[in-house]
Design goal:
It holds the Pfam family NmrA. By secondary structure, the chain is of the alpha/beta class. Helix content is 45%, strand content 15%. It folds into two domains: 2-137, 3-Layer(aba) Sandwich (Rossmann fold); 142-166 and 197-258 and 272-283, UDP-galactose 4-epimerase, domain 1 (Alpha-Beta Complex), CATH 3.90.25. The strands form two sheets. It has a seven-stranded parallel β-sheet, sandwiched between helices. It has a two-stranded parallel ribbon with strand order 7-9. Strand 2, helix 2 and strand 3 (47-50) form a beta-alpha-beta unit. The chain is globular, with a radius of gyration of 19 Å.
Length: 284
């Protein structure tokens, strides 16, 4: 039995859909905070169980009888380590034989603000003794949905990544990698650095938007502090603005790209090209 936490989230839904193509629905558990949001999966024969990272009792029940668990990282910064620790403890007590965790690129060495909680979670998993696989996901192209909308409306967008390049690809690529690990063999103890085959810059992103929309689009690079002030001016909370500026710093430093080829090998195909990913965002 395979349990997917956060199964009604943006990544989790894609993973469950991928699993449904490979294993019987009765062997899949969609572990979610609100079971009502998983009614569609239940109607297709997927087991739906309540699982709240803040309620360890629900995690124990959700993982009961599980052979494999995909622990999709919490979306709540600041409390992730405690939440993930509760899930890891529940997995160990349930006798789970394989715990896959969605981490971040180079979690053990990255200077990204987002990386610290992932590094700490990886350490908790290693110390738990539960057999694991770390899926160190890079950036999602969907992270730039608002950027694309802004560019379409104004003809430009702003950032502070300079000429840095990142290996961003759609969530579906990462979901397919998770499905491959959950349904395949030889992944125990592996740490996969997952990123696109062809890293791209914000200038490349602007060009891709322009090509998809058939209109000129430019990228304006500004100093980090000016970028932060612009984001605050748009009404973003200070922590989110700081995270986005730090992400651009990481892109400039090459922290969101990887030449490992792990993602391509896991999904058995080339990763989705930037042009295709952006075209999908433009259509939306």
């Amino acid at each position: 039995m395979i349990v997917v936490t956060g199964a009604t989230g943006q990544l989790g839904r894609l993973v469950v859909e991928g699993l449904l193509k490979k294993v019987p629905p009765a062997e899949i558990v969609a572990a979610v905070r609100d079971p009502r949001k998983a009614d569609g999966f239940a109607a297709r024969g997927v087991q739906v169980r309540t699982a709240d990272y803040d309620d360890p009792a629900t995690l124990a029940a959700a993982f009961d009888g599980a052979d494999k668990v995909l622990l999709i990282s919490s979306s709540t910064p600041g409390v992730r380590v405690a939440q993930h620790t509760a899930a890891v403890t529940a997995a160990r007590e349930a006798g789970v034989g394989h715990l896959a965790y969605t981490s971040i690129l180079a979690a053990d060495t990255s200077r990204l603000l987002l990386a610290a909680e992932h590094k700490a979670t990886e350490e908790v998993i290693r110390e738990s003794g539960v057999p694991f696989t770390f899926l160190r996901n890079g950036w999602y192209t969907e992270n730039y949905e608002q950027t694309v909308a802004q560019a379409l409306a104004s003809g430009s967008f702003t950032g502070s990544a300079g000429e840095g390049r990142l290996g961003g690809v759609p969530r579906l690529d990462y979901a397919e990698a998770a499905v491959a690990v959950l349904t395949g063999e030889g992944h125990l103890g592996q740490v996969y650095e997952l990123a696109g085959d062809e890293p791209w810059s914000y200038a490349d992103l602007a060009a891709a938007i322009a090509a998809a929309a058939g209109k000129p689009v430019s990228y304006e690079d500004v100093p980090a502090e000016q970028h932060r002030q612009l984001l605050l001016g748009f009404g973003l909370p200070e922590p989110l603005a700081a995270m986005l500026v730090d992400a651009d710093r990481g892109i400039a430093d090459g922290e969101l790209a990887s030449a490992s080829g792990d993602l391509r090998r896991l999904i058995g195909r080339p990763t989705t090209p930037l042009a295709d990913a952006v075209a999908a965002l433009v259509k939306n």
